[in-house]
Amino acid sequence: MLLVKYLKFHLGFLRILGICLQTPNMSRRNKVFAYICSISALLVLPLTGYYVFMSVLPRVASEFLVNFQVLVLFITAFVIVLETLSTKGMQFRFWRFIEKIENLYEEQLSDLEVEYKILSRYQMKKFFLIILYSHGLDFVTIVMTKLFQEEINVVTNWTVIWWFYGSAILITRMRNLSHILVIDTLTMHTHFFNQDLRRLGRILQFSSNSYIVKELNLIKLRHAYLWEAVYWSNKCHRWSQLLNIVDSFYKLTEALYWIYTTREKFPGKAKMGYF
């Protein structure tokens, strides 16, 4: 399959995080590696989630927000790994329909390959930006902890906590990115489909009836396969995307709450524009 060849790095990195994406013609080694990573993530996430949850027990009622955020985050990460592990058949259907679409573009395969290269480079930039953003925030937090905490055990504990917490965040963000990758793939195929329609519109004006019927049948199949791919991609991301939305909404609500309480505690600074 042509597309999978250009997305080897992306799929491999996602599998390391326990996001067990299945593709046609996977080697036995890749399958074993993907399953080991996913099962390990399912075992490790509850343990690390419990450790982080118990490490940030609230001292006052308002700090319960932090505990609830940790709970939502690790549940989301766990469901993401479990969903990718349990939707193997749906993932295969998605990739099979993409493969069928590729096979219908025999004469335009070189043009399609160019589009795949562009898609791969574009996704690579997104991957590195998300990795730098996620671990960059964790690194800054750990450094600040080392600067302002004198007790070495406190620094060590917070470093471990933020590493676990950051890893769970990275899983949720990468699952979002895997969904975006699927959407970008479908968007690219839709754009390529429309370009091919315009090309055919010019050719069919001077073509015989038999050629027109043949091309119209191909158009019908491409359209049907594209919609099937959309359907199965949505089925594969149902629960993870719902929980990601809940997690993001809660983080926004929590951030607004802390801004509000800060303004209440420091009304003078708020008027001066500090908050």
From TrEMBL:
Q: How does it sit in the membrane?
A: Multi-pass membrane protein
Q: Where in the cell is it found?
A: Cell membrane
Keywords, A to Z?
A: Cell membrane, Membrane, Transmembrane, Transmembrane helix
The keyword Methyltransferase is assigned to this record: no
State the superkingdom.
Eukaryota
**Secretion signal span:** none
Q: What is this protein called?
A: Gustatory receptor
Native species: Lutzomyia longipalpis
